[in-house]
Amino acid sequence: MTDASVASGRRGSLFARKPWLAAILLLIPPMAWLVLAYLGSLVALFVSAFWSRDSFTGHVVHVYSGDNFHQLVTDSLFRTVTLRTLGIALAVTVIDAVIAVPLALFMAKVASPRVRLALVVAVTTPLWASYLVKAYAWRGLIAPNGPMDWLTGGHALGYGLPAVIVTLAYLWLPYMVIPVFAAFDRVPDSLFEASTDLGAGGWTTIRRVAAPLVFPGIAAGSIFTFSLSLGDYITVQIVGGKTQMLGNVIYGQLVTANNQPLAAALSVVPLVLIVLYLIALRRTGALDEL
Amino acid sequence: MKFRGIKKAASIVAVLGVATLTACGSSSTTNAESPTGHNPPDVPMLQSLGKGEGELNLIAWAGYAEDGSDDKSVDWVHPFEDQTGCKVNVKYGATSDEMVQLMQTGQYDGVSASGDATLRLIYGGDVAPVNTDLVPNYKTISDFLKDQPFNSVNGQMYGIPHGWGANVLMWNKAVVKDAPTSWGAVFDSDSPYAGKITAYDSPIYIADAALYLSKSQPDLGITDPYSLTEKQLDAAIDLLSQQKSTIGEYWSDYTKEVQAFEAGSSVLGTSWQVIANLINADKKVQVGTTIPTEGSTGWSDTWMISSKAAHPNCMYEWMDWITSPKVNAQVAEWFGEAPSQTLACKETSDPTFCDTYHATDSAYASQIHYWTTPQTQCVDGSGDDCTDYSEWVTKWQEMKG
Questions:
Q1: Which residue of A79, A94, A197, B190 has the smallest Cβ count within 10 Å?
Q2: Candidates B2, B23, B398; nearest CB to A60
Q3: Residue A133 sits in the same domain as residue A37
Q4: Are residues A114 and A243 in the same domain?
């Protein structure tokens, strides 16, 4: 018997005598991560949003004030950029849902197992490539003398807001397709058959039987597409032309202006938007199954 | 998939958290001095050189500390390590603002700071005065780079000049037939090149607009593009807002600028000589560059030593190494800027290099308004009613909308 197996044997008997010990050991890493890294950083973020800073050296001054939040509400720049960012996130989510639903339906219910596997691989493959590579690929694709220009006879998308929406929709599509696919996959074929047997047409079956069952999947996917779009600031720098998103303004305040307190206050905005989005989804009942 | 997304979201939040935590950390380690722009905090200066500490942590512009990984023949880090025994770790800073932030952590020994970062570092107490007697190569550095407002205070040097260059006006020769001679070319609202004009994506670009206004609208009374009153700043912002309608995109990453010119999405705008060299070397398009009649903004970089440097002797060795004739020539040629070391001009592989970059031409150098940090206490000494950098940032963001 090797030393290692002796040791594991002893450990095994220890855990057998004290099962709570194993539970604690198992839970410590994830709980520590959750409390320290996740909640702790959120608290630090929120607290620092009330500080101010020395305008010249950029050092944070620990004097509490609500000035940052006051500026957040009164400055029209922040309102404009927040609305634009929200619009982009919603547009990306809708586009991804519209593309994902028929694709996922085909993958789950129509395609043969071999085609299904091929499609799952095809949908997830882009996730293996670097985010930057994909964004720069789009930059090349929609450039004035690029492939899209050539294909459409001089009607390339060009850099700007539409390019941002299309690129983000492309980047986050797998995050929508996979949950919707899983949701369709969970709907038993017998339900479709029963619906047809009871006289419903294809469209009615999809609308009355499949849609309610698949909606939680779309909701789950939309959380990803919505929150990822809301926080993005790199794609817009690559294909956005002159536009800026909330992430750019936060980055500008954090790094360029070195105004960490104001950046922290601004970071609360997407956080609040995501919480509101989750509450709205919860009201529809889409989160009951999660 | 779900797990992946949540983890990503969590890590983004965590990164933000860490950033704020570091903010607390750095601020609590420095004294609560309140810099008024009059006198920097009292930081001791190294009096005598000791033995190297075996390690050196630098913040540098990309291209300033090459170790052969980009191009095998471009390596001045390994010879330095062999000679001094100081192992070099380099962190590249993307912008001046990022460099200031990194230096405030106190984890680095030195930085290649541009003029728009130096004063913030000096008055923040993040860098120490430099004992130029301990840097033998300092003697032969171009005189017009010594004791400048952006690298010294009250006659005390806070760093060793590294090199300098101008922000040039660049154009695609195939598209823009008549070589422009004025910055007016990028501020013309009826420009035939509207939609293909580019500008530098940083609040410091406000100075370019101010420089143009100082010549085109003398009534505004702008004498120094970094010393702007509220009214002058607003005029510059108005000009930039008007320019925005003709801009295709802004650039801050120089590879993006190279790509934009090669793809033809930008044909005219502000640039660096090194970018023009890269584009012309690729031979996809040909570009021309000029310093327009109004003069130009530019950078002058200085190696500075951290006030909390853990390896001060190695940092002094580095400052002397990087300004030694041979190495300074190598850096200047690789990066595409004028070397600070006058003796470097004999060491360049291209014998005309220093002429091309006007390295020892003080008249040319005086046409350049070097990046510096705007502050309430006007940087040109004209008063205390100037707008500071944070105001520039806010106005810049509002202009972009």
A1: B190
A2: B23
A3: no
A4: yes
Q: Touching check for A58 and chain B: CB below 8 Å?
A: yes
CB atoms within 10 A of CB B231: 13
Q: In this structure, are A41 and A82 located in the same domain? A: no
The 10s digit of each residue's pLDDT in B111-164 is 999 988 898 899 889 999 999 999 999 999 999 999 988 899 889 999 999 999
B156-168: b or e for each residue (b if 16 or more CB lie within 10 Å)?
Answer: ebbbbbbbbbbbb
A41 contacts in B (CB within 8 Å)? Answer: 13-14, 16-18, 20-21
Tell me what ipTM this predicted complex has: 0.72
- CB B20 to CB A252 under 8 A? no
CA-nearest residue of chain A to B119?
Answer: A57
pLDDT digits (tens, 9 = 90+) for A138-161: 988 888 778 888 888 877 788 889
Give chain A's domain count: 2
Tell me whether A125 touches chain B (CB under 8 Å).
no
Q: What share of chain A is helix, strand, coil (3-state, %, to 5)?
A: 80, 0, 20
Give the global pTM. Answer: 0.75
Name the DSSP letter for residue B176.
Answer: -
CATH label of the domain that carries residue A270 = 1.10.3720.10
Q: Which domain holds residue A143?
A: 72-289
Is residue A177 a contact partner of residue A100, using CB atoms and an 8 Å limit? yes
State the best of A43, A59, A121 to mutate against chain B, taking most chain B CBs within 10 Å: A59
